[in-house]
Amino acid sequence: MGGMTAAAETTPTPHPDARHEHWLSTRPRLVVASGFMLFLELALIRWTGSNIVHLSYFTNFVLLGSFLGIGLGFLRVGRTTRQPYYSPIVLAALVLVVLLFPVTVDRQTEGVLYWTSLSASGPPPWLILPVVFAAAAIVLMGPAELVGRCFPELDRLEAYRYDLIGSLTGIGLFTALSFLSAPPVVWGAVAAVAYAVLLWPRRFWARVALLVPSLVVVGALAVETLTAGALWSPYYKVTYVRGYWNDVPLMNIDVNGIPHQQATPARNRLEWERQYALPYERSAAAGRLDDVLIVGAGSGTDVSIALSKGARRVDAVEIDPKLLELGRSHHPDRPYDDPRVTTHVTDGRAFLERTSDKYDLILFALPDSLTLVSGASSLRLESYLFTQQAMEAARDHLKPGGSFSMYNYYRESWLVDRLAATMQAAFGHKPCVDIVSETGQQAVITAGLTSDAQRCGGEWAGATAETPPPTGDDRPFLYLKDRTIPEIYLITLGLILIVSMLAVRAVAGPYTRMRPYTDLFLLGVAFLLLETKSVTGFALLFGTTWVVNAIVFAGVLVAVLAAVEVTRRFRVPPLPVMYGVLLAGLLLAWLVPNSWLLGLPLPLRAVVAVVVAFLPIFAANVVFAKRFADSADGTVAFGANLLGAMVGGCLEYLALVVGYQALLIVAGVVYLGAFALLPRTARVG
């Protein structure tokens, strides 16, 4: 794409793998293999993150491993005639290791992601992250090798076309299973069937060698499904336990192995923790709560408290449908059965941008997602809730005399001050800041629409010289104190790049094979940066929900497919001209601010956002398709492009320092480098 996949308008002499007989003809086999490749990548990211909590915060480490494996798979084409039976075997080993040695995260380390205290168990990150990275690479190398073997049997762009159709099919299947809340045993069954379809051998013992690891995967995932009693939402593995504590009914909810929520009666929660009462005590509107908005409604305790405080209408916003379902079915107070409550399964920031309603109280109730947006290295599901622009949006939805409040266990005093300073910048006056407990910095921060609309117990001292500035939509990294890349990222990314260089040399031979395709390597680097900017931009404009994420990824593939079809069917301008269109598209994306897009009506916002985001993606893939179609060795060129995508995934962490908008500049510089390295013969025609 941009490239990320592709393949030649002239058919080269088939290598030995191309002559391997298969019961499926080339085109359907290519669709199945590429669809399986993307499905397996998404399933690995999703499942490993639910059991190894480090990977909830480092989702793109599995993505980087996948890119490495796919690149290596293509580079292996022509170097061996053996079938990649190693892929299901390593997948089975990975599943067993993850289930036998699950990990809960140590979030006592200060950094961009860890911010509350919880003890750790299981293998340390320096051990388990490399293991999962390497295993993901080896597992994905198998389907990629099968995809690559189809390319020499077709014209390059025709192979690219069917590869993209397969990728769209893989995304569609995984999205459908997410919608149906299918457990991982279903994902494992899909993988087992795909392996059988693609690798079914003639010899009996070879069949046994294929079936045994597939059955291990399905069996282990079935045991996990039955013993954990988990609900699989699009974001988490959700487990819950109902019981009593001192005769008080309660339900404890864990997500991805971390204690997350507790559903208890409102009266008991108010007795146990003062933070739940303070938003109402600090609001001058507490006596007339006609309309209340609760973002992060979860299993319903905050909603129940609002009702007990006299709210006449409550909009309950929750991003995870399973948490909402648990609250509807099992909360002791049954708050979601109350006719005064309307539930909304969506992202909180997106709801604020879309609704025209006004509220007496807006409450951000412990919105801690414990996971990242898929496809972005550092964007949490709730990142856009804590920016200055988000608090301004909340302010704009308050009635006269209304107030806005948030509470959580912030752990660091500078984090409390940062949020209070952000609220001060948005509202124009100091908020009320209540430190409920010094342990864990349990705090409540409240601001009235005016200073008269709030009743502070004491004056907040204000931000100090050590307090970081408010976060914004371009750098929404609330938990990153300094403008830097945390050391844990730098070390891990450095190790990933070293391992990748050694793996490429060991599997593909000398780097001189890829030297003629350095420009294609750079196209892969730049495209991943462009894709990251699209994912994060659409998350801001339309919500960080899994549906938006799936649509964006599918939209990127559709744009790539459109570029391929245009290149196949029409005479497109020479590459220098298309590079000019590409750079113009990047300039347009740079000049159109997200703040302006957010001010547009939703239908118009969608149209403009699609044009702005996908114009450079389309142009980049026309460039890639034209260049790739004329490459002398399609599989090596394709592998170089995918390895570039892996490096682009590492450079994505620059956003922590420069922001997401500046990734467009980095991508533009890399594209200029690709143009400078373009062979002279490719500059015409």
UniProtKB/TrEMBL annotation:
<feature type="transmembrane region" description="Helical">
    <location>
        <begin position="576"/>
        <end position="592"/>
    </location>
</feature>
<feature type="transmembrane region" description="Helical">
    <location>
        <begin position="185"/>
        <end position="201"/>
    </location>
</feature>
<feature type="transmembrane region" description="Helical">
    <location>
        <begin position="30"/>
        <end position="49"/>
    </location>
</feature>
<feature type="transmembrane region" description="Helical">
    <location>
        <begin position="636"/>
        <end position="654"/>
    </location>
</feature>
<feature type="transmembrane region" description="Helical">
    <location>
        <begin position="660"/>
        <end position="678"/>
    </location>
</feature>
<feature type="transmembrane region" description="Helical">
    <location>
        <begin position="520"/>
        <end position="540"/>
    </location>
</feature>
<feature type="transmembrane region" description="Helical">
    <location>
        <begin position="159"/>
        <end position="179"/>
    </location>
</feature>
<keyword id="KW-0472">Membrane</keyword>
<feature type="transmembrane region" description="Helical">
    <location>
        <begin position="488"/>
        <end position="508"/>
    </location>
</feature>
<dbReference type="InterPro" id="IPR030374">
    <property type="entry name" value="PABS"/>
</dbReference>
<feature type="transmembrane region" description="Helical">
    <location>
        <begin position="125"/>
        <end position="147"/>
    </location>
</feature>
<keyword id="KW-0812">Transmembrane</keyword>
<dbReference type="InterPro" id="IPR029063">
    <property type="entry name" value="SAM-dependent_MTases_sf"/>
</dbReference>
<feature type="transmembrane region" description="Helical">
    <location>
        <begin position="546"/>
        <end position="564"/>
    </location>
</feature>
<feature type="transmembrane region" description="Helical">
    <location>
        <begin position="85"/>
        <end position="105"/>
    </location>
</feature>
<feature type="domain" description="PABS">
    <location>
        <begin position="312"/>
        <end position="452"/>
    </location>
</feature>
<feature type="compositionally biased region" description="Low complexity">
    <location>
        <begin position="1"/>
        <end position="12"/>
    </location>
</feature>
<keyword id="KW-1133">Transmembrane helix</keyword>
<feature type="transmembrane region" description="Helical">
    <location>
        <begin position="208"/>
        <end position="232"/>
    </location>
</feature>
<feature type="transmembrane region" description="Helical">
    <location>
        <begin position="604"/>
        <end position="624"/>
    </location>
</feature>
<feature type="region of interest" description="Disordered">
    <location>
        <begin position="1"/>
        <end position="20"/>
    </location>
</feature>
<keyword id="KW-0620">Polyamine biosynthesis</keyword>
<comment type="similarity">
    <text>Belongs to the spermidine/spermine synthase family.</text>
</comment>
<protein>
    <recommendedName>
        <fullName>PABS domain-containing protein</fullName>
    </recommendedName>
</protein>
<feature type="transmembrane region" description="Helical">
    <location>
        <begin position="55"/>
        <end position="78"/>
    </location>
</feature>
<dbReference type="Pfam" id="PF01564">
    <property type="entry name" value="Spermine_synth"/>
</dbReference>
<keyword id="KW-0808">Transferase</keyword>
